[in-house]
Structure formats: C-alpha cells, structure tokens
Amino acid sequence: MARAIELARTADYRTSPNPMVGAVVLDSAGKVAGEGFHAAKGSPHAEELALAAAGAKAGGGTIYVNLEPCTHAHRSTPCADAIVSAGIKRVVVAMNDPDQRVRGTGIERLKSAGLQVDVGTSAHAAKQLNEFYVTHRSTGRPFVSLKFAMSLDGKIATRTGESRWITGEQARNHGHQLRHMNDAILVGVNTVIKDDPQLTTRIEGDRDARQPLRVVLDSHLRTPRTARVLGERTLIATTSAGDLDCAEVLTLPPGPDGRVPIEALLDQLGQRGILSLLVEGGAQTHAAFLAAGLVNKVYAYIAPKLIGGSEAPSPVGGVGIGNLNDALRLRDTEVVTLGDDILFSGYVDVHRDR
Questions:
Q1: Beta carbons of 172 and 164 less than 8 angstroms apart
Q2: So what CATH class is 1-131?
Q3: Looking at the domain 142-348, which fold is it?
Q4: Of residues 6, 35, 47, 311, which has the active-site annotation?
C-alpha cells in the first residue's frame, strides 16, 4: 500500500477535482506485475493502468489501491468492473470513497463477485494524501488552509506597512508550493489595495506549476481596476452590484454584518469543484475565517526577526478572545526549518474542550 500511495502522490495535485490514486498489482506469486497512477483529470484511472501493465499476470493476483475503486461510468469501464474482469482474487483498499457516486458501492461490487476485499490498510495516510478531496466530497466545501509569514514577535509588517520580505527565499518558495497545491487562493480587498499582489504561483524551473483561481473578498467592490490580481482566473466576491474588467464578479446577499458571508462563498466554490482554498490575508480576513470555524489547517512561517511596535499588525485581527480557554489549538503539528526561517503547521482542533 505504501507504494500505491507513493504513486498517487506523483500526480502532485494535478488531478483536481479528482482524487490522487495509485494502484499496484501483484501476480499470484506475490510479485509486482503492474502499477499505475491517475495523472490528471481526464487521464486513465490508476487501476486501469495497473491492470493493463499486468496483463494476464493479474489473474489470481492482488491489487492494492489507496481509494475505493469506482463504479460510475467514465471514459472507460468502471474500475470495480475492470478488476473483476481481470481475474483479480483479492483487493486491498486503504479507504472508502466519500463521493456520493461511490460510497461503498465499489466494495460491494467486488464482494458480490466473490473477491476478497480488505479495507483500512494505511487509512490515515490515504486520507491525509487526499484531505482536500475528502473534505470537499464530505461537506461540499473546499479544505481551507490559512497561511501567513511573521516575525518572531508576531508581526506581519512594520508600523508603516512594509512587509517585503519578512521571511527568506526558501520560505517564500515553499509558499509558492502551497499555491501550486491549492485550487484557489483568497485575500481580502485591503491586501489588494495595500500590496497589489499577483497571487500567482512562481516556482523556479516549473513552467507547468498550477495557477490557482484568485479570489478577492471585497464586500463593497473596492478593488482598483488597475490591480494586478485582475485577470481571467479571478473571482471578486462582493455584496455590491457592478463589474470589473477581466474578472468575474460574484454578488452574494450580505451577511448580518453587511459583508460577504464566508460560508456562502465556500458553498459557491465547492459547487465549482474547488477542492482547496489557501487564505493569505490580511489579518481581518484571517480573523473572519477563524471566528467562523472554517479553517482546517494553518501554515505559519516564522522569521528570526523582531519588529516591535504596538501599531505593527499581527496575523489575526478582529476582537480576539477574552479567555485563554477559548484559544484555538492546533493538533498534529509539524515544525520544518526553511533556511533561517521556521514553518510551523498544524490542523485546527475542532474537538477541543471549551
């Protein structure tokens, strides 16, 4: 199964809105006979490729796959049917597919054909690999990551607003990898006005890096017409009527505070097949997502610098909490060194004690 997951990871998030899937076929003697992975939307499924590579050796053998084989029609035979037709005797599946078109039907199809089916091997690793897909198929909304860079004393800019650059080149390059991984990237309109970002993925040596849909949270349509973020793959989420050249304007009914309701925006993105959303600021936007309980994971890049100043902004704005018991905690945390900087990441603990 470890090899199947390794193969799946090779797709490098290019399969969206499909999951990353790898498959390995062993012959009846337990030797590798074929393997494959789903490389991109519209390309052959992993099981199809692994079975084709194995050929007649698949008969009486075993197939390992990190996600339940599909049963719905696509460009070729459903994978569960292909496995049965190939004469496979045993199927090892890491996890069930949460897609409403599958959800156990692949397992049932295999069992009804008399195959031995084992489910749950390396389930945690499989779910983590496809956490964007699992969240989207389970909730209808994208997996939300919140990202920021700050000084050691928790500042994302100086008191004059200067923020380029707090972290070093390695940390910034890692941030572009996150953009490549995600289907969409979001900032608040104040970030657009102050920093005029492009919000593009720029990875040295990779001209095929994925460019996420750029989303601007702009309740009152204040995005300047000269903003560099505007373009064909830009969505302006607002509550105001209007239009902007070279960008789609999505007008939503305002929430109780008169601003774009984030939940409704996430629903819209989910309906468009957006599996993942990277939120990159600013502080008030971060606070809004966190207060609404909509953040799944946090990436904090920390530089060994001290900025100081009561007027210098921190990563999370808003009113804040009054009691430490109400603080959001992160679980499954990880610390990575990137040059002189540190990346601290973790998942928001939604089951914390209050």
A1: no
A2: alpha beta
A3: Dihydrofolate Reductase, subunit A (3.40.430)
A4: 47
